[in-house]
Amino acid sequence: MRASAIWSSTRRAKIAVIRGWGWAHCDVVTPRQQLWSQQLELRKTIRPDSAMTEPWH
Question: Is residue 44 part of a domain?
Fold first, then answer.
């Protein structure tokens, strides 16, 4: 494997992580990724006020 091939594969992996893919496969989690995942979890649990006024049930 050439250095350029290794570079392109790691670059692809970084881009994939930035886009939010394969976080489960990534051992190294940066604080920014942690913050982003926490925000996603918050969005799942807490709906915005406008959404709460809409008839969901």
Answer: no
How many helices (H) and strands (E) the chain has is answered by 3, 0
Could you tell me the residue range of the domain that residue 16 belongs to?
1-29
50 within a domain of the structure (yes/no) = no
> Residues 38, 40, 43, 44: is their CA dihedral positive or negative?
negative
Q: How many separate domains does the chain show? A: 1
Cβ atoms of 23 and 37 closer than 8 Å: yes
E-state strands within the chain: none
At residue 53, the pLDDT reads 57
Question: pLDDT of 29-48, one tens digit each?
Answer: 666 777 777 777 777 666 65
Helix (H, G, I), strand (E, B) or coil at 57: coil
